[in-house]
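Lecture notes, continued. The same structure-token format from the folding unit now serves as the input rather than the output. Read the line below as a description of shape only.
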């Protein structure tokens, strides 16, 4: 398989990455005044919408390495936005919950849906559905290949 692409015609993977990075850069710029990064925002989003969550499970949902999530959680705890307590019978498991300050900050944060609207607004729904289906299939294939190794 030829992994190169003509410089004038980047691959679907290159465009996917470019789109992701552009959206994340806009997200980070929007969150900067609140002293938050995009991954911290995703943790807060999850806790605000799903509720208290075991840290291990949150890592799976957000597809974050354990060490990466530990650093993010430690930062959010230090900022007073998240509370980390022992979960049930297994004292090694940590339950994450938004603090009162975390809930207040969440309500103050801007709605980031403008990023999605800027990127995909006006694009035909059928084209978006095809794009999602193609990327979902490609992702599943790559995960399956990784599991085989």
């Amino acid at each position: 398989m030829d992994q190169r692409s003509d410089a004038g015609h980047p691959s679907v993977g290159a465009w996917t990455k470019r789109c992701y990075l552009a959206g994340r850069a806009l997200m980070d710029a929007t969150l900067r005044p609140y002293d938050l990064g995009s991954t911290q925002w995703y943790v807060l989003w999850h806790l605000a919408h799903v509720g208290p969550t075991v840290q291990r499970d949150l890592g799976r949902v957000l597809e974050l390495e354990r060490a990466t999530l530990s650093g993010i959680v430690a930062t959010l705890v230090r900022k007073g936005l998240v509370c980390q307590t022992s979960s049930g019978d297994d004292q090694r498991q940590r339950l994450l919950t938004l603090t009162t300050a975390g809930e207040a900050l969440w309500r103050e944060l801007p709605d980031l849906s403008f990023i999605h609207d800027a990127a995909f607004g006006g694009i035909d729904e059928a084209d978006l559905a095809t794009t999602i289906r193609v990327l979902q299939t490609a992702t599943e294939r790559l995960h399956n290949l990784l599991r085989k190794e």
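Point for the exam: The mean pLDDT is 91.
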